[in-house]
Amino acid sequence: MEINKYEVFLDFNFKELTYKGNEKIYCKLAQGEKLPLDAVGLTIKSVKVDGKNVSFTHEKGRVLIDTNYVEDVVEVEFEGKVKERGLVGIYKAPYDGNYIISTQFESSHAREFIPCVDHPAYKASFKISVKVDKDLDVISNMPVERVYDAENGKKVVEFKETPRMSTYLLYLGIGKFEEIRDKLDDIDIIVATVPGKVSKGKFALDIAKRVIDFYNNYFGIKYQLPKEHLIAVPEFAFGAMENWGAITFRETALLADENSSFAQKRGVASVVAHELAHQWFGNLVTMKWWDDLWLNESFATFMSYKAVDALFPNWDFWAKFLTDETSGAMFRDSLSTTHPIETHVETPEEAEQIFDDISYGKGASILRMMEAYIGKEAFQKGIQYYLQKYKFSNATGSDFWSSLEVGSGQPVSEIVKDWITKDGYPLIQVTVEDKRIKLTQERFTLTKGTPRVYTIPITLEVNGKKSTFLMKDQSATIDIGEDVKSLKLNIDRTGFYRVMYDDVSLFFESNPNHLERWGLLDDYYNMLLAGKVEYKTYENVVRSLMSDDNYLVVDEIRGELFGLWSINTSKYTLIHEFLELQTPHWVSKKDENSRRIYGNLLRTYAYVDNKFALGLAVAFEGYDSLDSNIKEAVATAYAIAYGEEAYDELLKKYRSEKFDEEKIRLLNAMLSFREPYLVVNTLSLGLTGEIKRQDTARILPVVARNPYTRFAVWKWLETYMDYLRSIYEGTAILGRSLRGAIPYLGVSVKEVEDYFSSRKFSDIQVEIDTALEILRVLRRVA
Question: Residue ranges of the Aminopeptidase N-like N-terminal domain (predicted)?
Answer without folding.
Answer: 4-169
